[in-house]
Design a protein that fits this description.
heterodimer, A: 402 residues, alpha/beta, eight-stranded parallel β-barrel, three-stranded antiparallel β-sheet, B: 396 residues, zinc (chain A), metal ion binding (chain A), tRNA-guanosine(34) queuine transglycosylase activity (chain A), cytoplasm (chain A)
Chain lengths: 402, 396
């Protein structure tokens, strides 16, 4: 793995380039990792995956915990690792246990021997040694060390323990490192600036290729997050990549970018897709402002549409006019509305394709803004555009709702 | 008539043909996957084209409920609505009514049933069925028939057969788009050869573009099944397509093709995929079994589909019945298998290698030579020598 920062904007937001052996083209950052279940996207089958923008869509997050229900470490090794297992040879796999959809850290059940996760197989205790066995058999391009993630409300004592354990497991995991694959040191610290800093400083002294920032998206507020993120990134060497888990919404991604994070795992696409939403905010290079968005009644989100709504029953336009994704090139809002109404799987397939395509477009806008030196401006515009039409209505209650 | 049917190869009763429909030029024998609600579960139209699907079925009953045939018509027809450029076939809606609905009652007027939406009594007449299908716009539409289960005996079967003939005239009269949509009649008559014969003659008199053999694939024993197919294919005109409704097991398709049938439909391949069962030359492979968790072979080493080329049984095992992707990949493979079977039937007949194909097929499925007796009997009537694949019968 090779990584280099190419541009800064507003001090800490940065655009970089990531090279992985398995991916022919360099990947520009900030970049999104696509969510998977057992190595493949939830709904986008491998032959349709290639229709997504490239190389933007080449990074896939895999949780080793997914394989615990039904595929042994031995069998995965025999097959030859992730690339062989899922038949995707030109992608980059990034492995870490937490999957913000279905493998969530369970802080109360972790102990000094291992981290605990709530999974579809029940509650599992994962120790560094067995975690590294999984990593060794899967052979991902990047992987994070095991962390003890805790939610924002735990006691100072529990939080401090989580940092101690995470650092200890970092060293244990590194000691068991497989020959290939780049290791990202895990950083936690909850809602304590001091602990965040301490953990980051420790990780910074270890021989790792990058950093995995955990413990976010676990009940901390959006307001306290920027300071915590900065406490981490300020303690880390600039030239190594930073990956974060648990920031889902576009605004949260922007918080991460502002603090100097390069790679993101997000559940946004998953939740949109399952609930029948499709992203529609404009992706042109022009500034996003209220007048770009279609006129709407008060209260309707200009960012996305819910295709279950009856207003789309006869709408023969694509989700987004001009979108080059498979869904918009081939199908109409009316058809997807019908598929949702009759509970057909094809609805989720088509929505996951479009939403992934669109969200990747959002990341492209972020990168362009950074390279043009106007990231903060872009960020302010984007956040404000959500509320512009509501401000005109003068409704503060609605502003505070999100 | 909106189709052309040209036989391009024969072996005894079996035929390979070119079936030219308004939206697509098809090669028979062929299998039609069922896209009940305007989609084949879990597959895109792109993938269906990649696999080689030629005709897809839409279910009139389901589509009339949601999103309604009026909406489909307003948006330009089902082809446009689902963006399927190839051929479509819709059934009459009658079968679902009888099989899905509580208190469905058949009278001379039509099928009366309780609306699943609000419980009010509703009536599906032959006229209404054809009008709905006209609005949906499929290349082939099916007449509303009075279908009875083959496990029923008695005067009901005769009543149903004669009613089917009376209803075909009402269907023909109601059909507004004969130059764009082909109305197929359906032969009924239960397992009674006399009734079947009367029905065939009656339908052939109406000079329809194609004919279906209905009322089978519903629990009758295999011996009765093949005999009805054999009788009907012998009696139906040779220059028109013959469609055996509801037939989906690969073995049944091979036998029916040997007897002279051309088209088939069934939910079996896609439905069984969702339960974790793959179609393979040996029969079926149940991927849910624990033994599969360690099996690093592909589902079918002889299959050229994307799933068999890239995935192990172990991986698919970890997905099936748990993740949507498992359904998708297995449906993809199973339909590919059925399309490949269709292609093999067509090409082996054209190339004069049909008996070899049949023997090969049976040998793989019955390696011990225990080919079921009904298959042997049917192949005898079809004049195909399968003695090389059958172990000698023991009369103990």
């Amino acid at each position: 793995m090779k990584f280099a920062v190419k541009a800064f904007s507003n001090g800490t937001a940065r655009a970089g380039v990531l090279h992985l052996d398995s991916v022919a083209t360099a990947i520009d950052t900030p970049s999104l990792l696509l969510s998977t279940r057992k190595g493949l996207p939830l709904f986008i089958s491998p032959d349709l995956l290639s229709s997504l923008p490239s190389p933007d869509s080449r990074l896939l997050h895999v949780s080793p915990l997914h394989f615990l229900e039904g595929l042994s470490v031995k069998t995965i090794s025999k097959i030859g690792g992730l690339h062989q297992l899922v038949g995707l040879h030109d992608r980059g796999f990034v492995a870490f246990p937490r999957d913000s959809i279905q493998c969530l850290p369970e802080a109360t059940a972790a102990n000094k021997t291992g981290a605990s996760f709530e999974t579809p197989c029940g509650r599992l205790l994962i120790k560094p040694a067995e975690y590294m066995e999984m990593i060794s058999s899967m052979k991902p391009e990047l992987w994070a060390t095991l962390a003890d993630e805790v939610p924002a409300w735990v006691s100072n004592k529990r939080n401090k323990t989580s940092v101690d354990r995470t650092i200890k497991w970092l060293d244990e995991c590194i000691a068991l490192s497989p020959a290939n694959g780049a290791v990202f040191g895990a950083i936690v610290g909850g809602s304590s600036l001091e602990e965040r800093q301490r953990c980051a400083q420790e990780a910074a002294t270890r021989n790792v290729s990058g950093y995995w920032i955990g413990g976010f998206g676990l009940a901390e507020s959006m307001d306290e997050r920027p300071a915590l993120l900065n406490a981490v990134t300020e303690a880390l060497p600039e030239e190594k990549p930073r990956l974060i888990c648990g920031l889902g919404l576009p605004e949260e991604i922007l918080q991460g970018v502002a603090a100097g994070v390069d790679l993101f795992e997000s559940t946004y696409i998953y939740h949109l897709t399952l609930e029948g939403f499709a992203l529609t905010f404009p992706l042109e290079r022009t500034r996003i402002n209220g007048s770009n968005l279609a006129p709407n009644d008060a209260g309707i989100d200009p960012r996305k549409i819910n295709l279950r709504a009856t207003v789309f029953r006869k709408d023969t336009t694509p989700i987004v006019e001009g979108c080059t994704c498979y869904t918009c090139q081939n199908h109409t809002r009316a058809y997807i509305n019908h598929l949702l109404n009759v509970h057909e799987m094809l609805a989720q397939i088509l929505l996951e394709i479009h939403n992934t395509h669109h969200f990747l477009g959002f990341f492209r806008l972020i990168r362009e803004a950074i390279k043009a030196g106007r990231f903060e401006e872009f960020r302010k515009d984007f956040v404000r555009s959500r509320y512009d039409h509501l401000v005109e209505e003068g409704s503060e209650r609605v502003l505070l709702a999100r | 008539m909106a189709l052309r049917f040209e036989v391009v190869g024969r072996f005894k009763r079996a035929r390979a043909a070119q079936l030219t429909l308004p939206h697509f030029e098809c090669q028979t024998p062929l299998f039609m996957p069922v896209g009940t609600q305007g989609t084949i579960k879990g597959l895109t139209t792109n993938q269906l084209e990649d696999i080689g699907c030629q005709i897809i079925l839409g279910n009139t009953y389901h589509l009339a409920l949601r999103p309604t045939s009026e909406l489909i018509d307003e948006l330009g027809g089902l082809h446009k609505f689902m963006n399927w450029p190839r051929a479509l076939l819709t059934d009459s809606g009658g079968f679902q009514m009888v099989s899905l609905l509580h208190l469905a009652d058949i009278t001379e007027k039509g099928v009366t049933f309780q609306s699943p939406v609000d419980g009010k009594p509703m009536l599906l007449t032959p006229e209404e069925s054809i009008q709905i299908q006209n609005r949906i716009g499929a290349d082939i539409i099916m007449a509303l028939d009075d279908v009875v289960k083959t496990t029923i005996t008695g005067p009901r079967i005769e009543e149903a057969m004669y009613r089917t003939l009376r209803w075909i005239d009402r269907c023909i009269a109601a059909h507004k788009r004969p130059h764009e949509q082909n109305l197929f009649g359906i032969v009924q008559g239960g397992l009674d050869p006399v009734l079947r014969d009367i029905c065939v003659r009656g339908l052939v008199d109406r000079n329809l573009p194609g004919y279906a053999i209905g009322g089978l694939a519903g629990g009758e024993d295999k011996d009765s099944f093949w005999r009805v197919v054999a009788q009907c294919t012998a009696a139906l005109p040779g220059d028109k397509p013959r469609y055996v409704m509801g037939v989906g097991y690969p073995l049944d398709i091979v036998v029916c093709s040997a007897l002279g049938a051309d088209m088939y439909d069934c939910v079996y391949p896609t439905r069984t995929a969702r339960f974790g069962t793959a179609l393979v030359p040996e029969g079926v492979l149940k991927l849910k079994h624990n033994a599969m968790a360690k099996d690093t072979r592909p589902i079918d080493p002889t299959c050229a589909c994307m799933v068999c080329k890239n995935y192990t049984r172990a991986y698919i095992h970890s997905l099936v019945t748990k993740d949507a992707m498992g359904s998708q990949l297995l449906s993809y493979h199973n339909l590919y298998y059925m399309m490949q079977l269709s292609r093999n039937l067509h090409s082996s007949i054209v190339e004069g290698k049909f008996p070899e194909f049949v023997c090969n097929f049976l040998q793989k499925m019955f390696p011990k030579g225990d080919v079921p007796e009904w298959v042997c009997n049917a192949m005898e009537v079809a004049e195909i020598d399968i003695s090389s694949c059958c172990a000698p019968f023991r009369k103990d």
